[in-house]
Predict the structure.
Amino acid sequence: MKNLLEKLKAFFSAKKVDSAEGSQNSQPKSTDTEGEKQPGRLKRLFLNIKAYAKRKPSTFIAIIVGIVFVLLLVTYEALHLTSTPEFCGMCHVETETGAGAEYHTWKKNIHAAADVGCIDCHGKPGFFGYMRAKMGGMYDLYSEIVHSKENKMAILTEGATNKEYAAKLVPNDWCLICHSDDANKEIRDNTFMSFFGVKMRKVDAVKNPEFRELNGLRDIFNDEMPNISFSHDNHVNTLGLSCMECHMGVAHGGEFQNKTKMEDCFACHDAEREKNPDMIAPANDDCSACHTTVVAMQEGTLLLEEGEEPTPPSIMADQGIYGAGNCSTCHIGAFDLPTAATCGPTCHSEGMDYGFMYDDIRAQFDAVKAPLDKLNMQLYEVLGKMTKEQRAKFNEFKNYYEILANDNSKGIHNDTIYVKAAEKAMAIGNELASSLGIPVAAPEEGQE
């Protein structure tokens, strides 16, 4: 027994020695860096990259350039995709004219036909103006998610009805860069227009007079306006009015082309006359001072080309009954438009009611204009595909077509003039349509 106990004691003593030796062997060997913390994963990654850059500097630089290029491309595409009218239309979803229907009304407007998008008008020209607009768009997106629909509609309604607020949303410079040569030059000379040659939107590439002439636009400060005598230079540069004073809803009014309202002219002039009776402005009843195109139409001098004889004047203008100086014969009030009844017993004796002629002339006008309306829209749809020569032809077509579009009398002022304008517009428009593969326009059934 004693021998057995001694053997067991010796066995366990040997095990303790082996265990102690094993523990010593498991300890790391002492080095010069003993006690220092081993580098983490990120630091090891950085060290590996640094080592790779030293081994293959050319390859490393190429990889960095590639990564930067991809990031810039992704950023550019993201900015571009979120700047399209279709992207804006994801929130502005209403389909009636008014607040919330901005995308719907824009699609019906001439700005859409000319490929002028939301970001072109709702952001200051230039690169920094674009980026500021994008940052503002991020807040709009936040508001769309967080704020109520009532809050959103209240803000949009304010922009559509309050001229002062609308002028802050779209200041004059943002319109003038396209519509004025002098303003365009001043803006371009004092603005960083692009990011190293990369232009983010259409407006930043606009350079007048090339852009303006290509699109058949007038220089609003130096060229004569169509249909009406009006000085933009006086109202904008001298009086300091905003474009929104006269062109409220310019792209969101629900119509193809925004037109000024005579009610706005009268209201503004009347208010100013109360403050300054000596204000230099035509009297409200001095029709011919502003409506110079109507005067020329009545007198038969509109559309005269070199060596061409004047078109016969309006019958009533020729008789001195109905002309530039006597508009009130038919226009009893500025906003009281004549009717067939006006032409009846008002002027003619009993049994000589010529009111039927009024209706006939206007019906004929509608029949002549209808195919030109269709052709005008068809040409706008392929505007981006036209060559420079075809654009010039299109602008020539527009000059004649707009005479009809601006004739609110529908031919009553001078039916000979509208027929002449329609014939010229049809000939030029059909020639252009044929070159573009568009079916040519034809008169309405029963009309020659």
